[in-house]
Amino acid sequence: MDLIGTSFLIASAKPRELSQFYALVCNGKVIKGFNSNHYLIMYSENYKIQIYKPSTEIFKSVEEPLVFSICFQKEPSLDPSFKLKEWCDELIALGSQTYKKPRAESFGAEAWMSDPEGNYFLLFVPLLRVDEKNINKI
Predict the structure, then answer these.
(1) Is residue 66's pLDDT more than 80?
(2) What CATH homologous superfamily does 4-133 map to?
(3) Torsion angle of alpha carbons 1, 81, 122, 128, nearest 10°?
(4) pTM of this prediction?
(5) Whole-angstrom Cα distance, residue 14 to residue 85?
(6) I need a surface site. Which of 9, 13, 51, 59 has the fewest CB within 10 A?
(7) Distance of CA 133 to the CA centre of its chain
(8) pLDDT by residue (tens digit) across 98-130?
């Protein structure tokens, strides 16, 4: 079975500033994420907070359920969209529903889902870049 990481996920209009705030709250360390709109706060070996600026306007009000969520992350894959679809299908068979259409991004693939009781969460599979596996180019 694949290793799954878990983190808290916060959407923000100003992710750098908000990450500094939560780093102070948690006595954690801010680490730059996938791009200039994504930051991680590491506050223990196994726990982190991800703060990001959405690539689309996902929150129009504080009632939008995707502003604060839990994120489940699988190990990076050369084909994150395929891995994500398999994962989504497994969870749908257990009563989960797709909330936002799965999509590919430059850093991987993600899907917003809801559990059988209607709680929202994000599934994420990072893109494994060829250089990360030390694969020689032909």
Answers:
(1) no
(2) 2,3-Dihydroxybiphenyl 1,2-Dioxygenase, domain 1 (3.10.180.10)
(3) 70
(4) 0.71
(5) 31
(6) 13
(7) 21
(8) 998 899 999 999 999 988 878 888 999 999 987
